[in-house]
Amino acid sequence: MRSISSVAQQPNWPAPASLVALFALAQIVLWTLAPSLTHSAPPIDVVEGYMWGREWVIATYKHPALPSWCLEVSRLLTGTTGWPAYLTSQLFIAASFGMVFLLGRDMMGPERAAAGTLMLAGVTYYMWPTPEFNHNIASTPFWAGIVLLLWRAVERQALIWWLLLGAFAAGALYAKFSAVFLLFPVVAWLLYDRRSRARLASPGPWLGLTVFALLATPLAIWLLRNDFAPLRYSAQRWQGLPTYRVPLFLFDTAANIAGIFVMLMIAGLIGAWRNADERQGTPLTVGAVSPRAQEFLLFFTLGPLALTVFVALLSRAGLKTAWGSSMFNIAGLLAIALTAERFTPAVLRRIGLTAACLLLIVPLAYGAVIKFYATHGSRPALRVNWPQRAIAERLGEVWLQRTGQPLRIVAGGPWLAGLVGLTNRGTPSILSNGDLTLSPWITADRIDRQGLLAVWDAGSRSIPPPLLRWIATNRWGEETFNFPGSGSRQMLAIGYVVVPPKAVRPD
Prior knowledge:
This protein is mostly helical and 507 residues long. The protein has helices at residues 16-38, 44-53, 66-78, 83-108, 110-118, 135-156, 159-175, 180-192, 194-199, 203-225, 229-240, 245-267, 276-279, 291-314, 331-338, 345-375, 388-403, 414-422, 444-450, 468-473; strands at 409-412, 429-432, 452-457, 476-482, 491-499.
């Protein structure tokens, strides 16, 4: 009987591990190029992350700071911003693919593991949103790694897997606090699964817990000293969303992973094309994935989602679609595990070709959408069309002409203030919304010594209230900018106030 391993022997068809490596490499290259060639400004989360990264804080009022550290490291290594952030994001996604493949290989062999990994091309979360490196994307490899390491720690019983599990669990918290929606299911699985429960009598789980506690302690201390600011911010966001968004969240989540079902149909595993290989005389693969492996995949695909929805309903809060992006990196493995008895060499080939088509088509569509918004309409709907470098250069010149000193502080909304400070030679700190409580690295004394540049969108009537005290007591100005590719049809007006250092202020 023909085995799945014959896939690797077919002419011009890579071995499963090579196939996944090519998939990850294509993801990195194409999804780095797509935004690099079309964006004139990084996405808002990238801008804000860059500005936080230069402060080297453990956390901010919004989130833990691991993504910001990664962005700052990329800036220091390359000397620039923009494409390094897009590359960083894709490296995180590719790392997730690698860990998903390793988990699948442990459970069901390399061919099925490769198919389950390539199925992620059908998950929108790992395609269209990935140019915006943020806490959701930074969380993804940690979620994949935790599930992989938990499986290996229980199955292989080697101490190293428990230690790595503790380290990844702590790292997930530094990426985003929503990791608790995975960590609670991890604890639940250890107590529920008989084999996992038996391992609790060995030193491994407890040493892993010690590693977790040691690594997470600095973050816990920061939270205590800062009145749990990110948790309060998250609670406010949850409570600020209407509860009807929970059903909408579930609907949007289903839409984001619907590509997996389409790929299953194309592969002949479900739907009208199911059993096509049988009719053509191709033998089916012998052997199914173990029920325990299927249960594990189902538990960690649906468990975090169910817990998130339960907490939202219990607290009468809403959910945003993007918050589910880290939860479905093993969804492809689950789909293959549930249809494993119908897996044939042809299935992997079809999935691979479908994934290749998606990797070519979706980045091209993304670039076309960005360019369309850049050249049509009276005002672009996308922030990535804003003329970031022109804004930073012009307002930087205004500051230099007025003060003769490097710009060290820029105040305003996180988006606009970030655009001004992102590429300024003085690498200024951001004073978010002009509020000292949101940017503890800035004090009133520092403002006296270094001054600040306050900026706002003059085309909007929404000005952060803390900026008003500087607008009222200083001469303000306005600069206008054209959007790239729009000629004079699209204009942006930015208001500004120069608050010079105390030493150079007129008496």
